[in-house]
Structure formats: C-alpha cells, structure tokens
Amino acid sequence: MDYQPVGAGKTARSARRTLPEAAYWKKFQSPVLVKEYGMVTSLEFSPLKPHDLLVTAAMRLQVYNGRTSQLKKSITRFAAQARSGSFRPDGKLIVAGDDSNLVQVFDGASRAVLRTFRGHRDPVHVTKFLPNNVHVLSASDDKTVQIWDIPSQAAVNVFDDHTDYVRSGCAFAGNANLVATGSYDHTVRIWDVRANRSVTTISTDDPVEDVVALAGGGVVAAAAGPNVHMFDLLMGGRTLTTLGNHEKTVTSLCLDSAGGRLLAGSLDHHVKIYNVQSFKMMFNMGYPAPVLSLALSADDTRLAVGMASGVFSLRRRAV
Fold it and tell me: Mean pLDDT for the chain?
C-alpha cells in the first residue's frame, strides 16, 4: 500500500475522568424517547452551543433544541428518503443526501436550499462537509465518491474505485485533503483529494457500515459485520486490533470530544464504549430496538441513539 501521510499524527490521549468509567457512563440518565416518521438512520449534534440535534428519518430532517430537546424546525425538501444529515463545522449550513440521487445544502437558520448537487446515479447515503467549509463529501450506491465545491456547485473529484455500494464516509479533522469511505465491496479506502486518487485500500471480511477517523488522523475505525476494526494508516492500513464484542452487525460509530472513547452501536440492541488506547470495552448500554445511528454532543453531556423502530433515545449526563 502506498499511503502518503499528509499531516496525520498519533491518536490523541484519552480524556482524564474524575469518575470511574462505569460510574461516568451511568450518569447518562433518564432517556427521552421520541417517535419519528421512520427509521432513524442518522444523528448529529451541532458543533455550536447549545448543540442542537439533527435527526434524519424518512423524508425529512428534524432539528431538536439543545436546551429543551423540543422540536425546533423541520426540513422537508426531499422527494425521497433523506440520508446523512450533517452540520458544517461552523454550524451555519446543513447537507443531506437522498434516495432521489441528490445532495442538497441548506441554510441552517432559514432552511432554504442553497445548493443542489446533481451527479450521482443512485441513492446518496453519505454527505459530510470537509474542514475547509467549502467542499462536501458524498458517496452513493452508484459506487462513486465525489467531492463538491460549494461556490461553483461543481464536482472537483470523482472517485470510482469502489465496486459496490458506498454506505459510509468521513472527513479527517483539520485536514481537507483526506477522506475515508467504507463500501459493501468489503474495503475501506483513503482518498487524497489533491492527488485525485486512492492512497490506501484496506480489505475486511464483511461489508463496511461505518468509518471514523480517530483524533490525529493516524488510525481509522471501521464497522464491518459484528466487528470494529482499528487500522493504522501510518503502517499502510495494518490492523491494530479487532473488537468483536457485538453479536450482530455494527451499524454506527462515534467518538467522545477528546477522542479517547469510541462508541459502537449495533443491531444487537447495544451500544458499547471502548478505550481507544487499550482497546478494552469499558461500558455497555442496552436499547429496546436495533441501533442504526448514534451521536455524542461536543460537550459530552448528551447521547443520542437512533433505532430501527423509528424511535430515538436522548440521554443527558448528570453533571
């Protein structure tokens, strides 16, 4: 593998906790259960206080107030199932894909459609802003990964090396030149936007459901089948370890604010929390239905979990 590091570093140190690990996570109490219009396929908190929650379900995006947890606004400008609602790092814009093959950029305040990107031929399951705030990552069932320029509305990169659906992707914090995607072709690929090519290809035994770049960018976590694989990019994608604590497919991954804890949600109704340095499972939470999505707020005080039942759970940490 010919991975070329572009600013990737070592994994950040875990945050010190004043409470024992189990006691810390048990502080996430009194879950509020909210029924949505369909399966909750994506969740994301705004990076800005009060950290509103963006919920993707059915043919709409729902924004819930970060203080009151009440519905604040709905975005319904979709002709088909909405996918992968995501905030820009400055919190001002929202991007989402849908099953009509579109990528749309919305004004977070007015809900107006600012940009519509037309270039995919099949449903778009992944949309993320890159850290430079002017580019958008999208990935689709048409097997392509595209990078869009917001000002010109043009695709500046089109990557077509995947051979099956591309259902997951992520940007690298602080580095707009690298993106990672996971596909049902059983691979994770790292793309260099400047070089316009794949620089690392990592094979897995199962379709890849989610990918997350750890703090520093030197390690990528990938959910594939019932496992979470940790890959060292600085060693060409070498497997550091495989976390096999789930009984069914792991569907979603997220990190805490310090990057020291990895949360994994699964169809087995469980969310498990791992220490990214020791790779040990630190805590387990059970839910009433298969888990499809999860998110932790930037201040680590709220945990949202979306389920196949069309319900999402919102827990607040007592502080």
Answer: 94
